[in-house]
Amino acid sequence: MSHIRILLPLLAVCILLAGCGLASKLEGQWISDDGLQNLEFLTEGTIIIKVVGLPVTGKYSVIDSKHIKVAINGPVGVLAGEQIVKVNIRGKRLVLDLQNGTALTYTRVKR
């Protein structure tokens, strides 16, 4: 039983550190391959999405080392609902796999 008391807090710290790593990798600006969409992930958990220059804001949080939860503000957020998104970052490339099966690809433009 004493091993469990030691392992549970250690496991929680490992999960938090894995999530923090993803957040720091996401931070900055990304542009879609077609140039129509720009994402900016801010340190405090804000996401700014610009589609054809029109901004929409929301919040994101890291679930684990490969997933984030995104909630968009306003009417768009009401329609979209909260989304769990799979994240894959390789160098300057970001791929977001949405719940509906769509994969969106971006390139880092600013960090």
Number of strands: 8
Q: How can the largest sheet be summarized? A: 8 strands, antiparallel, barrel
| CATH topology heading | Lipocalin
| Mean pLDDT over the full residue set | 83
Strand order of the largest sheet: 1-2-3-4-5-6-7-8
Low confidence ranges: 1-19
CATH class wording: Mainly Beta
Radius of gyration: 16 Å
Task: Count up the domains.
Answer: 1
Any idea what the CATH architecture is?
Beta Barrel
| SSE string, helices as H and strands as E | HEEEEEHEEE
Provide structural commentary.
This protein has 111 residues and is of the alpha+beta class. Helix content is 29%, strand content 49%. The chain is globular and about 35 Å long.
Q: Nutshell version of this structure?
A:
The chain has helices at 2-26, 74-80, and strands at 28-32, 37-41, 46-51, 54-64, 67-72, 83-90, 93-97, 103-110.
What would the keywords be for this entry?
111 residues; 2 helices; alpha+beta; Lipocalin; 49% strand; single chain
Layout of strands and helices, then pairs:
Layout: H1 2-26, E1 28-32, E2 37-41, E3 46-51, E4 54-64, E5 67-72, H2 74-80, E6 83-90, E7 93-97, E8 103-110
Antiparallel strand pairs: 1-2, 1-8, 2-3, 3-4, 4-5, 5-6, 6-7, 7-8
